[in-house]
Amino acid sequence: MTDTSRAERVLWATLVAVNLVTHFALLGERAMSHDESMHAFYSHELARRGVFRHDPMMHGPWLFHSTAAVFLLLGESDLTARLLQAAAGVLLVPALWLYRRYLGRAGALLAAALVTVSPSILFYGRYARNDVTMALLGLLWVWGALRYHETRERRFLYVTTAAMSISFCAKETAFLSGVTFGSLFAGRAIVRALRGRERLRESASAHLAVLMLTLVLPFLVGLVHVAAGWNPAEFDGAAAQARALWMVPAAAAIAALLAYAWSAGAGPLGLRFGTWLRLAAVFWTPPIVLFTTVFSNVPRGLTSGFVGSLGYWLGQHDVARGGQPWFYYLLLAVVYEPLALLATAAGIVLVLRRPVDRDGMPFAPLLAWWVVTSFGLYSWAGEKMPWLLVHLALPMSLLGAWTLARVWSASSWRTLPRVPAVALLALPALAAGALAPLFGLQPQGGGLEAAAAAARATTRVLILGALLVVAWRASRRVGRRPAAAVLALGVAGLMGAYTFRSALRLTFVNGDLATELLVYAHGTPDLKRALAEIREVAARTGEGNALEVAYDDDSSWPLNWYLRDFHRQRYLGDTVAPPRLLAPVVMIGSKNIGVARPHLEHDYVAREYKLIWWPAEDYMRWGPRDLWRALADPARRRALARYLLLRDTGYALSDWPLRHDFTLFVRRDLVERTWPLGLEALRPAAPAAPAPPRFECAAQGVLEGAFDGRMLQGPASVAVTTDGRRLIADTGGHRIVVLDRADRFVRAFGTRCDLSKGLAGGCLDPDGPGPLMLGDGQLLEPWGVAPGPEGGVLVADTWNGRVVSFDRNGRFVRTWGRLSTGTTTPVEADRLYGPRGIAYDPARRTVAVADTGHKRVLLFGPEGQLWREHGGPGREAGRFDEPVGLAFGADGSLYVADAWNRRIQRFDGLMRGTGEWPASAWGSRGPADKPYLAVARSGVVYASDPAGARVLVYANDGTLASTLAGPGWSEGSRARPTGLAIDETRGLLLVADPARHRVWSLAISGDAARPCGAR
């Protein structure tokens, strides 16, 4: 199909022009994501120093070598780091021109249009990742195979082979593509042979399947390693390299023998062995050259490339980074690719109903197989990330275009009466306009307001009814089938407009804002603001790129990339102490800020920035019931509509819950010298107060080792009952360990259960058909434990989002609460997001729970009845930012460790504020650095400071009187004290130390000024 009309050429040229604009406009403006910065930095290292070592964690070497070449030619910047991917995104349109013979003129144009408006393809086509390059290579891979299948001309095998070769050099998703395409051709060949339609050795499908398998065989060595129990991620060991150096050639030899045996019986049009050898040279040359960095890293490169590419990612399957649910890609497709998804679903129905050509390669079934298999494989794979949506959006665009072309043909548009046809075409948009105001709206208030709202709703319903009457009358004039086709085109146009709008907003408005689900582990706009300020300081002081800049391990990405030109940059790692810390400009991540701040706050000014953030992920725990509730609740329907149309999550970006921060410190004398820059906006660090005295308390005992045959694994919390029993929340062991007052083991209870995964998450039904439910009595990383009613035990089952109550013998009693991820607004009372602190007041029979992720404190009765909800995000008194530790005082006051507001708040029994104490040491936002509290009968308050490896001791008037530590604790040591409990009868402070997998028993005096007691 080579003849084209002038109108068709204009349309293709227009699509190419639109893609040029959308892919290259403002390409360097968006901040780098975490992964982009790594790709760009190591490409920069290869370009400047010629240094690169392949690591499958960052995927294949193609991106790094090609980007390094661009850097050498055009210089280094965010723009040039993304240049080749943008070019690949534009080239998708000319590549789809090649599919005109299979999709038809209209189908190919529609495919190019769907790719053009696809939010995921456009966004990641401007991203320093391989995914859109893989999409382009996938199109060439399939096109070459189809052309060979059609013509038996061997030149098309070279196209397929070259595309395969670069794919395996680019990203390990090539294995999934190989399974998808290889299974299709192999299955078709076998089925046709079994039905007697074609001999296997004469089948073009069989030749393609054999070619793909034999070429890829050396890459399957990683699978052998996994099966044999060897570590496929060990690239540097001599044994691993020696094993690879004989196994990879052996696999290549086996592949050659298989190809030779196959070719011996192939006909004149089959795959000849000489052809196979040439194709093998085409396939294997780029991987050998690139994985070994042009033969400069031969043993390790061959090991990491041919063993690690598959083996490493098989090992990551069970790790399941991202923790996304099975329906993740379906959710993303609904939000971002609704047109392609709906058209694809219709296309699959058509494929199942429509007879196919039994002799040639049926193209529509191929597309359906591509879509269904890709959805299955990517949904099965452990690691689910948003950029992988590209690998589903491409086949959906092809099958969707094939479907829409048939709908267009069925509409008989040119022969329809214009007025009815236009009415039917416009009906979906008009109906959407009539229904939109009703989506989630209910009459509120009373009197005239409610009456007016009801009247408006009634009017819209009448308008919609009138539209349906028009549609019915128009369908009678034009015929049911054409009318249905025109209506479908109207729906497609409406959804296409939504999709293109989503693509433009995602790319040019929200490109580095976590309000978008596709903006994942992404650098915030603060990055470029901070870098601009640093460059201004460097310029004003005359230092330029010679300015000393220090940064820690918790802020290194994307800062490694952005600080590449500062010749005197200083990487601190996790050792953030003088003298190396004291550079003119210092950047410290939230993990280390608590240790670094005391050294910097006197002589530096500070400003806090957001470094990396992630989208809100409340959907992760959804089930059918949750979805139904969301659609049935008017407020939640309104929230859903606002998200779909405006990406309004209900959170202010300044208070975004899923983020990682860093603090920029500039030495005070530099600020004074550069005052005209406007750096007065930098918030001065609080003047350093005199440091309280630090005491090292004697350890009366250390609780560690095996209990009930299992070692303690990161215990985060500890409690003491009125009869002296020790309750240890063995967080990593998903259980509670009980010891008597002499530290002798009594019992342990609880096993791992991830309720979100049900049976697959280890959950059990303890009594089968009885009244107990799946997961009752089981736990998932409990971060809080407290004595409960009647000598029982209360547990904050953190990542199951609930409270679990046990009796004194460890038998399950009840549970309350359901897991949320903090994005539903308003927050339902029974929804808990990462609850950590828990405390019980026996005098008032009140259970207090720190709903950490929702930034609130909840008070329950002993049976789980909600009594009071208090707080919410904010810095005002009575509000919280990461509340963790809770403790009741002897007078019934509740003390709350308001961690990220760096203060302790105190409330009476009605949650009325009665005091607030600063806790400036709590600067760390590390995920493990959660402070806990314990209150003595005397009113002395103990507060853990995990990052500072100490416990803060407050007098009962809120004065920070001293700090205490255990034996050998120091800043930078492995000690990470978290949970606290007081044994008043023995004069002990029990301190949970999850970093060392132990609980300390420290002798205390009860005196805040001199806290340590006698041994």
Task: Please outline what is shown here.
By secondary structure, this protein is of the alpha+beta class.
Structural class: alpha+beta
Main beta-sheet annotation: 7 strands, mixed
Mean pLDDT: 87
Quaternary arrangement of the chains shown? single chain
Shape: globular
Termini separation (Å)? 92 Å
Radius of gyration: 32 Å
Number of strands: 36
Bin the helical content. 40-55%
Number of helices: 27
Strand content: 15-25%
Residue runs with pLDDT of under 50 for 5 or more positions: 440-446, 676-683
Structural features, described:
Helix 3 packs across helix 4, helix 9 (173-194) runs antiparallel to helix 10 (204-216) and helix 20 (447-478) crosses helix 21 (480-509). The protein is built from 27 helices and 36 strands. With 1015 residues, the protein is of the alpha+beta class. Residues 440-446 and 676-683 have low confidence and may be disordered. The strands form 9 sheets. Strands 1, 2, 3, 4, 5, 6 and 7 form a 7-stranded mixed β-sheet that branches. Strands 8-33-32-31-30 form a 5-stranded mixed β-sheet, with no helix packed on it. The longest helix is centred in the middle third of the chain and has 32 residues, at 447-478.
Record keyword descriptors for this entry.
single chain, 1015 residues, alpha+beta, seven-stranded mixed β-sheet, five-stranded mixed β-sheet, 27 helices, 36 strands, 16% strand, globular
Secondary-structure map with pairings?
Layout: H1 6-24, H2 34-49, H3 62-74, H4 78-97, H5 100-117, H6 119-124, H7 131-151, H8 155-170, H9 173-194, H10 204-216, H11 221-228, H12 238-264, H13 273-291, H14 298-315, H15 328-336, H16 338-353, H17 363-380, H18 390-411, H19 418-435, H20 447-478, H21 480-509, E1 522-523, H22 526-540, E2 549-551, H23 556-562, E3 569-571, E4 585-589, H24 593-600, E5 604-613, H25 624-632, H26 634-646, E6 659-667, H27 668-673, E7 683-684, E8 694-696, E9 699-704, E10 706-707, E11 710-711, E12 717-720, E13 726-730, E14 735-739, E15 745-749, E16 784-787, E17 793-797, E18 802-806, E19 812-816, E20 818-819, E21 831-832, E22 838-841, E23 846-851, E24 856-860, E25 866-871, E26 883-888, E27 894-898, E28 903-907, E29 913-918, E30 933-935, E31 941-945, E32 950-954, E33 960-965, E34 980-983, E35 988-993, E36 998-1003
Parallel strand pairs: 2-3, 2-4, 8-33, 20-21
Antiparallel strand pairs: 1-5, 4-6, 5-6, 5-7, 9-36, 10-11, 12-13, 13-14, 14-15, 16-17, 17-18, 18-19, 22-23, 23-24, 24-25, 26-27, 27-28, 28-29, 30-31, 31-32, 32-33, 34-35, 35-36
